[in-house]
Amino acid sequence: MSSAVDFKNAVENKDDVSASELVKKLQTSELSSLGLDAKTLLTNGLPLAAISYLERFLGEKGVGDVAVDSDGNTLLHIAAASPATTYDACKKLFALGLGVNTANKSNADTPMHVAAKCGNIEVCKALVDCGADPTKRNGKNRTPRSQPKIPESSKDYLLDVEENYKKTREEKKMGMFGAKLQETQTESAFGLRVV
C-alpha cells in the first residue's frame, strides 16, 4: 500500500500520530494530490500532522499571522477551536510564528476568545503561557471570559488568569512609576495616586 493511501486513511481515522509521521515521508506531489494543507489538517482535528506539514514546508521562515479563511482566522484560531489541540501542540504552533493576540476580521476574536468559547482550557493555558492577553476585548467589547455561553470551566479558569494578569500588570506599572512618584510628591499625594 502506498504512503499516500496510508496518509489518507490516517486522516480519515483521525490518527494524528501516524498522519504526522507520514507528512514527513510523502513526496510533495503526493501531498498536493490529496488536497490537504495545514488548515485542513487542523480543521480535521490533526494538530500534530498540521505542525509537521508547516515545519516541512515553511521551515525556518515561520508561519506568521496569515488569515487562512474568509473570517480572517489564523491557523491558531482554527487550532483553538479543535478539541484535539493539546497544550503542547498549541505551544508548537506559537513557536512557528503564530501570534497569540491576533484578532480575526469577522468579530475581532483572538485565539483565546475562540478557545474559551470551545471550552478548550488546555489551549487557553498554552496561550497564556505564550503571552496572550486575557483582558483583550473583541469587537463586541468582551474579554474571553465575559463572552456569553462559554462553559463554566472556562469562566473559572479565565477569572483567575485575568485577576493574575491585572495584578502583575499593576505591579509592573507601580515598579516603573512608583519610585519616581515617591521622589517628586509628598507622601499623602503618592498615597492618593496609588489608591
TrEMBL record:
It comes from the Eukaryota. It holds the Pfam family Ank_2. InterPro entries: Ankyrin_rpt (IPR002110), Ankyrin_rpt-contain_sf (IPR036770). Residues 134-157 are annotated as: Disordered. PROSITE patterns: ANK_REP_REGION (PS50297), ANK_REPEAT (PS50088). Coiled coil: none annotated. Keywords: ANK repeat, Repeat. ANK repeats lie at residues 107-139. This is Uncharacterized protein. The keyword Repeat applies. PANTHER family: ANKYRIN REPEAT DOMAIN-CONTAINING PROTEIN 39, ANKYRIN REPEAT DOMAIN-CONTAINING PROTEIN 39-RELATED. The keyword Cell inner membrane does not apply. Gene3D superfamilies: Ankyrin repeat-containing domain.
